Amino acid sequence: MANLAKLSATETALAIRERRVSASEVMEAAIARIEAGNEKLNAFVFTAFDEARDSAKAADEAVARGDELGALHGVPTAMKDLFDFKPGWPSTLGGIPQLKNNIADMKCGFVERMEAAGAIFVGKTNSPAMGYRGTTDNVAFGPTTNPFDTSRNAGGSSGGSAAAVAAGMLAVAEGTDGGGSIRIPAAWTNTVGYRASAGRTPLLVRPNAFANTLPYIFEGTITRNVEDAILSLGILQGAHPGDPNCHQMVNDFSDAALRGIKGMKIGYSPDLDVFPIEGEVSEVVADAVKVFELAGAEVEEIKIGLTRDQREYSDIWCRLFVPIMRHSFDAIKAAGLDLLSEEHRHGLAPDLLEWVERVGPGYSADDLYRDLSVRSEVFDAYQATFAKYDLIVSPTVSAMPVKNTADGNTKGPSEINGVEIDPLIGWCPTFLTNFTGHPCVSVPAGLGASGLPVGLHIAGRRQADGDVLAAAAAFERLRPWSQHYSRISL
User: Fold this and answer.
1) pLDDT tens digits for 434-460?
2) Is 232 an active-site residue?
3) What's this model's pTM, rounded to 2 decimal places?
4) What's the start-to-end Cα distance of the chain, in Å?
5) I want to staple 155 with a disulfide (CB 3.0 to 4.6 A). Which of 100, 185, 320, 420 is the partner?
6) pLDDT digits (tens, 9 = 90+) for 400-427
7) Comparing C-alpha atoms, which of 95, 172, 186, 169 is closest to residue 132?
8) Of the residues 22, 55, 157, 197, which is catalytic?
9) Which residue out of 158, 181, 394, 398 is catalytically annotated?
């Protein structure tokens, strides 16, 4: 067949089903691509090629028998090396070196549903420790580089997955998103990062099954086109007995790719009211927004109604994650490894340690109540805006891809346009919709003057995932981005 690396997940599954290519051929092509490019990109931190080959052989036997095949039968995929598990595979929780031999004995919801659909896992992709930043770098494995400029970062915290998909190693890979970790790297790698409405897709968390609402945390996918995002959502959505927050609602979104957005009202926020935006980002996004008018939508520049300083919002996001991380460290300590001790703390980024140790011990129930009250203000502002508009579009992130550092601690910018921001997450207004739970996606807006990708963020009303996907698909039809992948050389 034609270059298998250029096929989408949908196209690959169809080709296998129609016996135009075997799952084994697809797998060998993916493995060859990973082996050719991973030294440069550092997208994968663990691979299981022999296991994947065996699974591909079994997938071919199922085709030969005429078995009923899943929507992703024989399609290679990967999961992120964070809170994502497959029995027998290591889990370092984002490149914490002391956990390199931490072997999982359970299967996360993403693996359950993707394997049930026939997808085959080839390995795990790079992530920062605890996923606690918008870049991908860590002590154990180092940074994941951007396929468009390997001196720069791929974004995070699902940067390994985004780099792998952009580079054609895979057509679809997992991301998790508690503050933008699917959408941030998608913006920096010219890929599609879709994050569903709160409650639509499950996330299995223990010992606290309710931790995935503080803020909302999601599993999802990074793909090269909107069609694959739609396919993935169809596989992942729906109630799971292990997630008390996931509802029964299951919708068919297959029509979203073609139904268009004529007559929709779209609010365009250049800066989400309070976030400084680099000029190169602003220029590309402002031009991209015009595409929605060509698609028949009505576009107006708006204010959402956020009134606090951007640093207050980003600090709240950082604080909300502190109890989750502290309890994770406590559980690891109970198992015999104190990651916060002088002996082992070198495996954690200084910023993560500062938040956990400075803020964590004194973070009271009253503090949490006040932070959730501000979070409620954000939710109310978005709800009021969605009473007037079907969609809100904005820059996905405020900055262009940053240079990697050699210390395992690559961060985002500490200031933009003279305004001081938090380098962990303050340049990522994506976290606002993790406060609120609205569905959202980052699609490639275009390339900046530097030749690097810029992301366009589209958010919709609660449970109106179809509207968000329809807008993303309409944008892709009128402003395609697949031609930019030719700039990537492995």
Assistant:
1) 999 999 999 999 999 999 999 999 999
2) no
3) 0.97
4) 21
5) 185
6) 999 999 999 999 999 999 999 999 999 9
7) 95
8) 157
9) 181
